[in-house]
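Re-run with default settings, no changes from the original entry. Doing this only to confirm the output is reproducible before filing.
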Amino acid sequence: MPDPFILERLELILDHATTIHSRLETVTDANYFISSAPGNQLYDSLITRLQAMGENFKKIDRIDNHFVADKLNLDTTPITRFRDLISHHYELLDYQIIYRICRIEIPKVITAIDSYLQLNRYCR
């Protein structure tokens, strides 16, 4: 049976990831982040969500450092290191990289977590 704390963290990560995905629906280019005040606000909100995702993955890793790799087939190292970069070196972030992460990596996270949670719903 999955650890309830891990399931809770996964639900939080999924919420952050789906929020990122939905907020980017109308954005077609990374330049939107630097071309307007609403774009800049969206950029900041996405970074906050990415940071929260990384923090929750770190919490899961503390309980079971093989869980995400074994059960979700995801590598948490880039995610948790990125969280550290956001937290400690915000000024070094590149808006184009943030855009690519949100467009390419977030859907993978959503799929992996959603699939896992669908298979383990009966355990809650």
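The chain has one domain: 4-123. The mean pLDDT is 92.
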